[in-house]
Amino acid sequence: MSVHGCQHLSAFKAAKGTDPFRIIYSYFIACPSADARRIKAKSCVCHTCRQTTLRLHACMSCIYFGCYGAKHIHDHAKSKKHNLAIDLTYGTVICFVCEDYVYDKDLEDIARSFSQKPTLNLVGAYIKEPFSTWEPSEDEIQLLKKNPKRRKVNSNSTVGLRGLINLGNTCFMNCIVQALTHTPILRDFFLADRHTCQMPGESKQCLVCEMARLFQEFYSGACTPHIPYRLLHLVWTNARHLAGYEQQDAHEFLIAALDVLHRHCKGTNGMSCSNPHLCNCIIDQIFTGGLQSDVTCKQCNNVSTTIDPIWDISLDLGPGPPAFRFTNSPGNYEPTSLLECLKRFTRPEHLGSSAKIKCGKCHSYQESTKQLTMKKLPVVACFHLKRFEHSTGYHKKISTYVSFPEELDMTPFMSSSRNDNNGFSNQIILDIPTSLSCDNKYSLFAVVNHIGTIEVGHYTCYIRLHKDQWFKCDDHLITKATVTDVLNSEGYLLFYHKQILEYE
Question: Which pLDDT score is estimated for 125?
Answer without folding.
Answer: 27
